[in-house]
Specification:
The chain contains 3 helices and no strands. The protein is mostly helical and about 190 residues long. The protein has 2 domains: about 100 residues; about 45 residues.
Amino acid sequence: MSFSKRWIHTLIWLTVLAPTQVLAAGGIESVFSDTWLTIGKAFNLVVIIGILVYFLRKPIGHFFARRSADIQRRIREAEQARDAAQARLADIQARLEKLDTEMDEIRRQAEADARVEREKILTQTEKDVVKMRQRARNEIESLKMQTIRELREYTAAKVVEMAGDVLRRELTTEDEERLFNSFLEKMGDKH
């Protein structure tokens, strides 16, 4: 504890607490009347306030000077922030005023782009339709040719089957021998 703090504590004890303790003990009560006691307390209070003012004047002065400087700095910062906010507000308001014009321009551009895109889609769709028709024609032609080939094969198979039935019914053993011999002769000529 520093010297000045010890000195303040001692003065407080001597001026406030010591007389109160003496009176509470009942030792000097007859000498001092209540009026003198009040005057003494008032004097002690004035002395304590004087001592406090004497010792705390500089620290309190410095505290309030720093506090005042800090408040002034914060006021300047707040003014700067307010000015920046007002500048931003003015910029935003200007941009909002231009927004309608920009929106109209964007809308016109979007409509023009949509028309161009629509024309591209229609052109591409027409090309796709032509390709699909050609592909369908080709598939139909292919199916037609396949069906004709299958019908021919079916007809030929039926003709052979029916001819075989007719031959089995009407072919005699003599006819079979004659055909067999004719076949062998033809085979012999080839080899």
